[in-house]
Write a structure and sequence with these properties.
By secondary structure, the chain is an all-beta fold. Strand 13 (86-88) and strand 14 form a beta hairpin. It has no helices and 27 strands.
């Protein structure tokens, strides 16, 4: 049995990038200049990591997801996992709906530890520039978070909800799916 290369041969690694032990970088991934990638991080095929972005230990960036410049992602966060996409068939059995979208994270975003940001089902999940997410935040598929939002204390946002700019939520708030929350709420 042969082991795959930890960093794919066609991955593009910028100047001054620091890569810790046990990191894997998939084919076609791009890591921008002066990014810092800590131990045990996985960057999937075709993912893009912006310049000066820092991924702390154990972070997973799934295939085809992108992070902007100057982003900080804390330990054990997963960006781009499948959303909760299931439907019942004629026999009332659950069948998986494949999640074909991506996640795009803007510039100067901070994502806390142990967060989950689901990839979109058909459209993409988006986190706006300058937004700040605390630890243990869950963002469902197709969610759009506007610029400069702040989510703290175990917030969960169900699929296909849009937050405008500068929205704040905290204290275990659960936001239902398919809603639009206006700017400055």
């Amino acid at each position: 049995a042969s082991c795959a290369q930890p960093v794919a041969k066609d991955a593009q690694i910028g100047e001054g990038v620091r890569i810790g032990p046990g990191v894997t970088v998939g084919p076609g991934a791009i890591i921008g200049d002066r990014a810092r990638i800590a131990a045990g991080v996985h960057i999937g095929a075709g993912a893009i990591i912006g310049a000066r972005t820092e991924l702390r230990a154990g972070v997973v960036i799934e295939h085809a997801c992108s992070l902007g410049q100057d982003v900080l992602v804390h330990a054990n966060t997963v960006i781009g996992s499948d959303g909760f996409g299931f439907a019942r068939d004629a026999h009332r059995q659950w069948i998986k709906i494949y999640q074909l979208g991506k996640v795009h994270v803007g510039d100067e975003v901070e994502v806390g530890a142990q967060c989950s940001i689901d990839r979109g089902a058909l459209e993409d999940t988006r986190i706006g520039h300058g937004s700040k997410l605390d630890n243990q935040i869950q963002i469902g598929h197709n969610v759009v978070i506007g610029d400069h939002c702040a989510l703290a204390g175990c917030v969960g946002i169900a699929g296909s909800t849009t937050l405008g700019k500068r929205v704040m939520a905290g204290g275990g708030a659960g936001i239902l799916g398919h809603l639009y929350i206006a700017d400055d709420v």
